[in-house]
Amino acid sequence: MEIEELKQVLATQQELYRFLSNIITLGPKKELLDHFRVVYSELLKEEADDDNLVKGIITIQKALIEKNLASCEAVLNREYTRLFIGPGKPPVSPYASIYISDEPKPKLMDESTIEVRKQYLDNNIVMANMNSVPDDFLGAELEYIYYLTVKSLESIEKSESEEFGALLQKQKSFIKNHLMTWIAKFVQNLLDSTTEDFFRGFALLLIGLVESHLLILQESAEVYSSAH
After folding, report:
1. Which of 50, 107, 130, 198 could form a disulfide with 63 if both were Cys (CB 3.0 to 4.6 A apart)?
2. Residue 226 has pLDDT above 60, yes or no
3. Cβ atoms of residues 127 and 120 within 8 Å
4. Host domain of residue 90
5. What is the rounded distance in angstroms from the CA atom of residue 2 to the CA atom of residue 125?
6. How far apart are CA 46 and CA 56, in angstroms?
7. Mean pLDDT of the chain
8. What are the residues whose beta carbons fall under 8 Å from the beta carbon of 163, sequence distance 6 or more?
9. What span, in angstroms and rounded, lies between the C-alpha atoms of 200 and 196?
C-alpha cells in the first residue's frame, strides 16, 4: 500500500470510527444521520459481497434513504433507548467487561476495564465522565481508536516515521488483544436483538471496520518497514 493510499484509508477510518462512537454515545441524532447519508451516498451503487464494512454502510443508507430524518431520529432513538439503556435490563450491553468476564454474573469495572484505562492514560487521555462511565464503554473505545488514527495521519503528514510506527503498534495491540476479544459477541447480540436496519447496519459496519483495520495495520507496518 502506497503512502497516499494509506492516508486516504486512515482518513476514512477516522470518519467511520467517529460516527460509530457518536451513535453509541449520543444516540442517532439527526445531524449524524444527515452527514452519513450525504458522505456515503455513492456506496449505494456498490456490491457488498461478503464485505461487512460495505454491507453495513449500504444497510444504514437504505434505512435512511428518502426518509424524513426528524421522524427517523425519533424512531431510532426509541430503539436506541430500548437496546442500550432500558427501562429494565437492556438487551445489549455496550461494555466490554460484560463479554470478557468469565464470571457467572459479569460486572462492570473489572480488571479488563482497568487495563483499558491504563492504555488511555499512557496516551494522556482522560475520559470526561471517568468516574461515572466505565472506561470500557464501546463509545470510549471507538473514540480512542479514532484518536490514534488521527495521530497516525498527522505523523505521516509531518514525516514522523518513528511516531507513526509507535502508533501503528498501539492500534494493533489494542484491537487485537482487547477489542477483538469481545466485539464479535456484542455485534451478534445486537443483530439478534433488533429488527431495525439502521442498527443492523451499525453492527455490520462495526465488525467490518475493526476486522479491516487489523488487516490494514499489517499492511501499514509493511509500508513503514520498507521505508526504513
Report:
1. 198
2. no
3. yes
4. 3-226
5. 31
6. 12
7. 85
8. 151, 155
9. 6
CA distance 10 to 33: 22
Q: Which residues pair with 137 in a beta bridge?
A: 95
Alpha-carbon span 53 to 34, nearest angstrom: 19
Phi, psi of 95, rounded to the nearest 5 degrees: -115, 130
**Predicted local confidence at residue 205, as pLDDT:** 97
With beta carbons less than 8 A apart as the criterion, state whether 14 and 150 touch: yes
How do residues 181-194 score in pLDDT, each as one tens digit? 999 999 999 999 99
How many domains does the chain fold into? 1
pLDDT at 3: 78
Radius of gyration over alpha carbons of the chain, in Å? 18
Q: Quick count: other Cβ atoms within 10 Å of Cβ 205?
A: 26
User: What would the grid cell of residue 73 be?
Assistant: 431520529
Most distant CA pair in the chain: distance in Å? 55
Per-residue model confidence (pLDDT) at position 206: 98
Q: Tell me what percent of the residues of the chain surpass a pLDDT of 90.
A: 54
Residue 4 burial class via C-beta count within 10 angstroms: exposed 0-12, middle 13-18, buried 19 and up: exposed
Which 3 state secondary structure label does DSSP give 128?
A: coil
Span 150-176, mean pLDDT?
90
The one-character DSSP state at 51 is -
The CATH number of residue 19's host domain is 1.10.3480.10
Q: Which of 84-93, 105-114, 134-143 has the lowest mean pLDDT?
A: 105-114
